[in-house]
Amino acid sequence: MTVLARISARLRGLAAAGLAAAALTACAQPAPVPDFADLRWTNKQAMTFQTNDKVVQSDFQPSFQPPYVEHLMPLPPERALRTWAEDRIAVTGTSGVPGEVGGLRVVRFVIRDASVREERLQTSEGVRGFLSDEQAWKYTAHIQADLEVLRDRTVLASATTEGYRSKTLGEKASLNEREEVWYALVVDLMQDFDAAMAQNVRRHLGEHLVGQ
């Protein structure tokens, strides 16, 4: 083999090795992390109350223990509820009640529950289980919140709304896929909550709203 032929063969070998290394590097690259933005409601008109102030509080205490996983989620239901209250509840800054003497009126949003429970589902064993990708996990989210109008510490009117949603996940799902399911679960649940709470507010707190 001539020197030129040896050099040409060497270059072809290096090129093939480079392509193989590039392919292995590409395979080794981790999947891009999904963007889990907070769920906002600024595209909807806020429900404005004739009150002096607004208070948002949470009585929910996560356990941080299995089978509950809300603290691991990219959008925990509790945070989604707080954001909902920030965007969907507004106040006039005055009570709007002529002749009312003493005391401030407050609209208070209280988070009672914002939990997500994980459940392991039964899947096939043996060859069938190895070859299939069955639904292996179930996630059930539960939220409950009260919206109250108070004068001093007296509750004048209130509306309670709660909701449940569940989604399942395949046994071979990646971490990104698991988080995408969790995120979609909370988004769907909050959309249910928004529609139900708006209806309950009109029914039970309508007299305290502006423009209703």
TrEMBL record:
**Lineage: superkingdom:** Bacteria
- Annotated signal sequence is 1-28
Sorted keywords for this record are: Signal
Task: Indicate what this protein is called per its UniProt record.
Answer: Lipoprotein
